[in-house]
Amino acid sequence: MKIEVWSDVVCPFCYIGKRHLEKALEQLPDLDVEIIWKSFELDPNAPINSDLDIYDTLAKKYVRDREWAQQMNANMVKMASSAGLDFNMDEVKPTNSFNAHQLIHLAKEHDKQDEMKEALLSAYFIEGKHVGDIDTLVEIASDAGLDRNRAKQVLENNTYSNQVVTDVEEAHRIGVQGVPFFYINEKYGLSGAQPVEVFVEALKKISEEKVT
Questions:
Q1: Which of 18, 19, 103, 168 lies in the 20 to 30 Å Cα band around 122?
Q2: Using an 8 Å Cβ cutoff, are 32 and 42 in contact?
């Protein structure tokens, strides 16, 4: 079974959805699954360096006040906690995610895509790292098992920029409206951070259909 996942490393629902999928797969140990992480940018125009914290960033984006953004994030933290994730929203550094996505494509060539994706999500939502900064990204890539010099070269030369753009274009072509979006066997789509039981039921049905 092939599961392609469009998501962004600065998307909280994407991290929660990743964890829910993983928990579902733990309940289906006999399922042979290949997960491919696809690029999607929630805000392609976001600056790499911002003077705003996550609350003011959201308030500005949705034309609401800071208090609204804080409440939204408080709810998000609770949702993440139920998935076993300890979000630290006060330390989140809003940035542009394009370079982070390039590293995920680099990691794919070394069968470390999942490690890279997890490292970037954790860096952004839990560790308060600047995932738009090249030096920081090189450190994250190195810790995830990628060659430090190669990672720096990729980021400085935009080696995988075309692949990132192609992923985004493919998402629009198949009708992705938001992320995370889980595309199973190039046929079935699940949108959003679905509960674990929804993933389990869907994956069971799809695997049974393939057999019959």
A1: 168
A2: no
